[in-house]
Structure formats: C-alpha cells, structure tokens
Amino acid sequence: MNRCIRALGALSLLAALPLGGMAQTSPTTQQLTDSTGTAVVAVRSFPPKALRGTLQVVAPPEVLLDNKVARLSPGARVRGANGMLAMSSSLVGQTLPVVYILEPQGMLHEVWVLTEVEAKLLPTAPAYSTQ
C-alpha cells in the first residue's frame, strides 16, 4: 500500500539524522612529517573560542587551571582523550593538557583532555587567547 511506503521513507529519513550530527563532530585529519616519512593522524576539531591549558582536578568541582584555582560549572562536560565523557572524580590528582571553554561566570563548562599528538600539534597559548 502507498501509505506503508511513505511511512518507511519517513523512518529512513529519521534514522539518517543522527549520522549528520556525528559527521560534524568527527575528527579532522592532519599530516605530520618527520625524518622517516609522512604519518596520517586523526585530530579532533575544537571550537574557535576554546583555550589551551593544563588541568588538575583537586576535589571536584574544585580544579586547578594553569595553576590557578577554578571551578567546574554544574553542567560541566569533561571529555577524555578517547572522546568519551569522563567523570571529574576519576581525574583527581592528574595534571592533564586540555582545551576548555569557560561559561560567562568564569567556570569551566567544556573540557577536552588532549592526546599526546594533539598536545604537540596545538599551541600552548594560541594567538587568539586572552591569557
């Protein structure tokens, strides 16, 4: 029947929607060259207003950001080096290279823990940074 075909078409369209959102957040590919040759490395893309620093979780939500006392916002999201959400309590005592976004009140809202490759590729203090 015609109405069944239309319903299946709508369902297939809805099933494809989440893939579009994932495509926007997928890692970008950058090439690193060294003395032995060229290696292709996947690096996540970060928002333009994100800043680079070091994070040490003291006692959640209290953290040290670039050796200054800071606080995680109530809805803060910390993404580990693998891209998955990490609980701040699992990072206690570690000093990690991060990219972060502050909320208007100055609390940490979005945090991405960098991999070793990303830490080497991203500058410590970007030109657009206000720090």
- Within the largest sheet, what's the order of strands? 3-4-5-7-6
Helix residue percentage: 10-25%
Uncertain residue ranges: 18-26
Order of helices and strands: HEEEEEEEH
Largest sheet: 5 strands, mixed, barrel
Count of helical stretches: 2
Termini separation comes to: 64 Å
Assign the structural class, choosing from mainly alpha, mainly beta, alpha/beta, alpha+beta, or little secondary structure: alpha+beta
SS strand fraction: 35-45%
Strand tally: 7
Identify the overall geometry: globular
Give Rg in angstroms: 19 Å
Average pLDDT, all residues: 79
Notes on the protein architecture:
This protein is α+β, with helices and mostly antiparallel strands and 131 residues long. The chain contains two helices and seven strands. It has helices at residues 2-24, 116-121; strands at residues 28-34, 37-43, 51-59, 62-65, 68-79, 95-102, 108-113. The chain has a five-stranded mixed barrel. Strands 1-2 form a two-stranded antiparallel ribbon. Strand 1 and strand 2 (37-43) form a beta hairpin.
Provide keyphrases for this structure.
131 residues; single chain; globular; 7 strands; alpha+beta; 22% helix
